[in-house]
User: Which sequence fits this backbone?
């Protein structure tokens, strides 16, 4: 489920919980509206406030770590692309084909970074095909002497490292926050908002506060979930490292 749909669902759940309880409260029997009942409702709500704060804090930390981890891997990935390009450039004319395939791969990766969904669902992926072509081109090179043989071994090792890093990035790009945790958090927040609606005066200011608060919490949930999937949505990993690598490779 997309982050936007989850955020909309969170907004609706919180708003309905608060406004629904505000509407139901006057219709409850008197024994359900006394001070003792109100005290118990507040105490239970306070427990879930603490629990929801802890879970949301863990979600923020998890999304932040995922985002920063992939960002570091993209920088390292770009560095290894540059190193492979320089090794092929030093190798000479026999490495030109592999260099051109490598440049084409980087250009495709910038246009549509990683395309993790297609890769993980075994759909056709032109980026992967371009990278495979680089490996095939390296395998076809026949070194003329021991010096070129050593450089070719380095190039193949660098290529293998690039492939490994690419798959690491792809595997990390799906997100690490489980859906049951998100559902549990929204349920707790709905309970908290329902407790806020209990005994709340039914006026425009209170209703506006509930709606605005639900909207801001839903936006916060969206931001966290969007950070957890860093190759789609509003918050994405910068492609600046790949662009700098491409500019260096085309010099």
Assistant:
């Amino acid at each position: 489920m997309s982050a936007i749909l989850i955020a909309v669902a969170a907004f609706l759940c919180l708003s309905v919980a608060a406004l629904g309880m505000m509407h139901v409260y006057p219709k409850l029997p008197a024994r359900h509206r006394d001070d003792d009942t109100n005290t118990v409702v507040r105490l239970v709500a306070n427990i879930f406030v603490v629990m929801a704060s802890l879970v949301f804090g863990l979600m923020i930390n998890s999304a932040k770590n995922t985002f920063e981890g992939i960002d570091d891997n993209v920088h390292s990935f770009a560095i290894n692309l540059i190193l492979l390009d320089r090794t092929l450039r030093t190798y000479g004319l026999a490495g030109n084909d592999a260099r051109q395939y490598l440049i084409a791969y980087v250009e495709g990766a910038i246009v549509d970074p990683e395309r993790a969904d297609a890769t993980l669902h075994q759909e056709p992926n032109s980026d992967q095909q371009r990278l495979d072509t680089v490996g095939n081109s390296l395998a076809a090179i026949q070194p003329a002497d021991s010096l070129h043989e050593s450089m070719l071994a380095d190039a193949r090792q660098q290529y293998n490292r690039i492939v490994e890093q690419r798959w690491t990035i792809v595997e990390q790009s799906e997100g690490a926050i489980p859906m049951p945790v998100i559902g549990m958090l929204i349920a707790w927040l709905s309970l908290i908002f329902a407790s806020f609606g209990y005994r709340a005066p039914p006026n425009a200011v209170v209703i506006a506060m509930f709606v605005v608060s639900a909207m801001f919490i839903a936006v916060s949930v969206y931001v966290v979930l969007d950070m957890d999937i860093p190759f789609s949505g509003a918050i994405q990993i910068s492609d600046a490292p790949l662009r700098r690598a491409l500019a260096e490779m085309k010099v």
Summary: The radius of gyration is 27 Å. Confidence is low (pLDDT under 50) at residues 114-122. The chain is about 80% helix and 0% strand.
